[in-house]
Amino acid sequence: MSSREAKNLQFALKESESNIFMDSIMEKKKRKCRGKKSRPLGGKKRNGGKGLLDKKCDRRYQQRKKEEERQALRESLRRSCNEAGIAMTRGNYRAVVDVSTESEDEYLDGIVDQLMEDCPPESPVVDDEEADEDFQSSEEQEGEFDDREEDEVDSPEEDMEVPTSSTGRKKRPRKVYSPDSDNDPDPPGADDHHYAPDEFGWSRTLRRVKVQRFKGPTPTGPTFRRHRTPAKYFLAFFPLAVLSLIVEWTNINLRDAGCKILSSVAELRAWFGIRIVMGLVKIPYYQDYWSNSPGYYNRLIATTMTRSRFDQITQHLACANPAENPEAYPHRDPSMFSDKKHHYSYMRKHPLYPLQPVWDAVLAKCKGNYNLSKNLAIDEAMVKYSGFKAKVRKFFMPLKPIRSGFKIYALAESSTGYMANFMVHPFKTGKPAKMVDIAMSVASPFVGVHHHIYTDKLYTSVELARRLLAANTYLTGAVKSTSKGLPTDFSKNSEKNPRHFRKLKALNKMPRGTFYSRQADQLTAIAWKDSRVMTMLSSAHQGYRNRITDKLTRKVKDDSGRRVSSSVAAPSQAVDYTKNMGGVDRGDQLRAYYTCSRKSQYWWRKLLYFLVDIAQTNAWVSYKSHHAATEGTTTCTTSEDDLGRKTGRMSHSAFVMEVGTGLIKGYSKGSTPRQSSTRPLSSATMPLHHRQKMPGKYAKQCRWCLRGKKTAGKRVSMSRHGCLTCNVHLCEGTCFLQFHGGQQ
Description:
three-stranded antiparallel sheet, 4 domains, nine-stranded mixed sheet, alpha+beta, about 40% helix
């Protein structure tokens, strides 16, 4: 454009109008650049068009797009010129400018080139807040999108593949990420402004975490001497002193009920032994253990105690002094409570009053009879209960294996499952009990000697880690990503973490093994990508991983779609957590194998059976610790079927049976079974049956004589002999032969 034409244009437009004109052009151009929504990488296509990545690689598309931009800008410039020349007519405007149509097009092309150089269409200047709004609007219109920053995506030529199907249509390009992972022993320093320490003191600068040596009592394992029989191992955790108290309190109930026969320690030992045997040999209805049917009948149980006596003890069993039972207020002692409010408050604060002495005694034995190793685990153990009369808080969790019941907070040894401490959910006036206080209550007897405790998301928090660290105890566990005090960089909230929240969201789509690490003094926090993102907190691990040893085996899909075992890179926190977190679960598994729990209308009996199972499980762990597995040796006189074929050590089921029979030993006040009403056998099975003395103190009627085959019209003969295989009493001589030979 000539200088004459430029002067004529400036003459037509005032200086202020010229500024308004150029500002409006630039503003429209920027607004147009902002209005173009970002699309996901290789994501959903609109109206059959290409994805963003395909368009970016297409040169013809870029040229066509650039030409469209030029035409749109020319039209916008032409309209702006007309708006600036509103005071003049079109003819006057042309006369003043004194240019032809071709010269006007050349002039507009020059202005368009200048504008496109100042604001390129492919790299618009957009604010972070406006970009976030554009991303959100694009998500609502087009579905899922990827929030990853542009600097985390490699070049399309290297990472992106655009495969084609058998029909020739292009498939969605595969996403390949190359994030900046923190598994490097030499990370960036704190002077990096992108990773400066946040308000909680978390920084990307990793320093070596010092871990003190474990100073607990040694050697680890049982503190009592080795016993000969499994029953003595059980009584080490459920002592005879407790049985004596139960007998005393049970006799009070028996007297009140008018029973003439009182209980004794031997009888109560036999009652608990029967309960343990019932847990090993399970039958749906406990009455069938005394059944006449040979399939249900259990000779050990039936000969130990009659069913009526077993039911009588079960009905009147007491694990606390009945005279101090608050449920009996005001019938027994009206002066025990001042009013109903005091009575209700006492029952709420002491929910275990029906068995508090027994609970305390068994718990004290579990704490003192075993020296724990370094690694411990805190978790909850469920006791199944579906009633509505419990004084202990009942939890309902429909997605758990045990949907409703009592929640027991327990601390167990990670390697063996030994239950060292446990408590029911505490009663708290006003606000509910905090998990930090519950975890500290469970762990308090074992702090101060540098134990390493593992917890899950329910308990882990920065506050718990600092409180345990102040008590010379370390903590490692999975933590909720929204927990208070975690690094701000680990937040997915754009307001709390405006700079890196997209990186946390994109972590779900990164390869397995990627993790970010932050450190604040002794504490380290990681965000690790496994099958999903897992946030962990530790006070005893380094913030970086050992590339040789820190790996976990996972099932992953190969190229053919099959799931195969593969090693996945993992931080040391995740490796140790996977190894040591299952202590309470291991104890629950041992407890559930041969539990003596039975359905009961009395809620406290479910907790009593829980104590029996805990004593039995801890006795088994102690027995294994004392009796090391050695080939070719046996440690107990029992059948070969119950012994380990290779170890020479008693199996778990054999141990439980020995505990039951050991408690029953020396007590037999049951009844002999009734004679079988089976038909006579053929002579082919005669060699399997022998005449011998039948068990029991008294003679019984001869089964063959009772049929009237020998003494019709006369008194039936009594005999103390018979066939033990057929379980019938028979006279000596012809009755035995005729019964088995089927002779008339």
